[in-house]
Each structure stands twice: as C-alpha cells, then as structure tokens.
C-alpha cells in the first residue's frame, strides 16, 4: 500500500471535513454537553466512511450526473441548515436564566442523539458534494491498492477529526459551557448555517435561471 497516497487521502479528507458545518456543530455541542458525545462521533465517522466508499468505489458519478437527485438533496439541505441555524440562534438569544431553567433540554436520550447525528449527516448536502462527488472523483482516478489507500486515508481523517473534536469539547466543557462562550459559539454556528444555506440557495437559483 502506498503510504504517500494514504497521506494524500488523509490530507484531502481533513480539508473537506474540518470547516465548520452542521456535522461539526452537532458534534461540538454534544461534546460540550457531554451527552453521548462518543456515540455522536462514531455515527458521523461511520456515515462518512459509507459515503466515501460509495463515492470512491463507484457512486460519485450517479449523484453528479443526476440533476434531479442533486436538486432534491440540495433543497433538503437548505431547509435543514436553515432550521438548525434558527435553533442555534434561538439558543444564543436566550438569557442565562432561561437556559439554566431548562436543564432537561440539555440531556437528550441516546435515541434522540443518534437521530440527530443521522439527520445532520444524511440531510447535509455538503456531505454528498464533499465525500461522494469530490473525494469520489479524485479517488476514482487511482487504481487497485492506491485507490484503497486513498480511501483509507480519507476515512482515517474522519475518525481522527470527529473523535478529536468530541473528546476535546468534552474536556473543555467547563470553559465552553460558560454562558458567554456558549452564546458566542451558538451565534457563530447560526451564522455559518445561514451562510451555507444562502450559498446553496443562490447556487440552485443560478442553475434554474440558466
């Protein structure tokens, strides 16, 4: 197995995963709450592995060439990102007293956490574009063991990042969970969700008018 190809896959995978998005925001929040955060990291990592495999080993062309499917995924993503951004904005605008008076909302059951992790993954159009289309098209250029090495590199990046983010957030929870810090994080997350949703909507509108 070619180590340099594996390293290339790891580097490119990290580049695609690290920028803040719905998945990272969700993993970060669950880590701060220490609420099934490792389960969240596992689900996001495993789902990434699934879609990376789908893209690199044959599914990338299906999504990139099917405009209807890509449009449906994008519309679903816009709706989800807008909703997630609204939830983050609402949380940021809550007073400290309101947040402290609703402790039951901070600890969600395992099932709810799992469903949330699946939602931020499956309803995230960037996931399909990054893993299936972009990584799939690049990985598809390799042959034999090099393609496998590239895939393993990108998959490793997912596990390292999501577990690192989850564990790091849990360790820093006493600092990150302070009202002012949490409000800042929520505002940043809300802003990013709205920006991404707007960019996707603009891109989709441009495709329609052209």
Structure classification: mainly alpha
Number of helices: 10
Strand proportion, as a percent range, falls in under 5%
CA radius of gyration is: 18 Å
SSE sequence, one letter per element: HHHHHHHHHH
Protein name: L-lysine exporter family protein LysE/ArgO
GO molecular function, one term: amino acid transmembrane transporter activity
Keywords: Cell membrane, Membrane, Transmembrane, Transmembrane helix
Organism: Vibrio diazotrophicus
Characterise this structure.
The protein is mainly α and 210 residues long. It has one domain (3-15, 22-209). The protein has 10 helices and no strands. It has helices at residues 3-17, 22-33, 37-65, 67-93, 96-100, 110-122, 125-139, 144-171, 173-176, 179-209.
Task: Outline the fold blueprint.
Layout: H1 3-17, H2 22-33, H3 37-65, H4 67-93, H5 96-100, H6 110-122, H7 125-139, H8 144-171, H9 173-176, H10 179-209
Helix pairs in contact: 1-7, 1-8, 2-3, 2-6, 2-8, 3-6, 3-7, 3-8, 4-10
Summarize the structure.
Helix content is 85%, strand content 0%.
Index terms:
cell membrane; mainly alpha; 210 residues; LeuE-type; membrane
């Amino acid at each position: 197995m070619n180590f340099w190809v594996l390293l290339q896959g790891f580097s490119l995978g990290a580049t695609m995963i690290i920028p803040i998005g719905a998945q990272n925001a969700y993993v970060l929040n669950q880590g701060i709450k220490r609420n099934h955060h490792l389960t969240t990291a596992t689900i996001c990592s495993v789902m990434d592995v699934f879609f990376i495999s789908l893209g690199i080993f044959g599914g990338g062309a299906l999504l990139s060439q099917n405009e209807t499917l890509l449009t449906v995924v994008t519309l679903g993503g816009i709706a989800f990102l807008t909703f997630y951004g609204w939830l983050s904005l609402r949380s940021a605008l809550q007073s400290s007293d309101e947040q402290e008076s609703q402790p039951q909302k901070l600890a969600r059951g395992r099932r709810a956490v799992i469903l949330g992790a699946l939602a931020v993954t499956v309803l995230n159009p960037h996931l399909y574009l990054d893993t299936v289309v972009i990584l799939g098209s690049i990985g598809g250029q390799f042959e034999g063991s090099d393609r496998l090495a590239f895939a393993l590199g990108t998959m490793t990046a997912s596990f390292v990042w999501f577990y690192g983010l989850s564990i790091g957030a849990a360790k820093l929870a006493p600092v990150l969970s302070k009202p002012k810090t949490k409000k800042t994080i929520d505002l940043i997350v809300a802003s990013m969700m709205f920006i991404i949703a707007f960019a996707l909507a603009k891109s989709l509108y441009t495709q329609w008018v052209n």
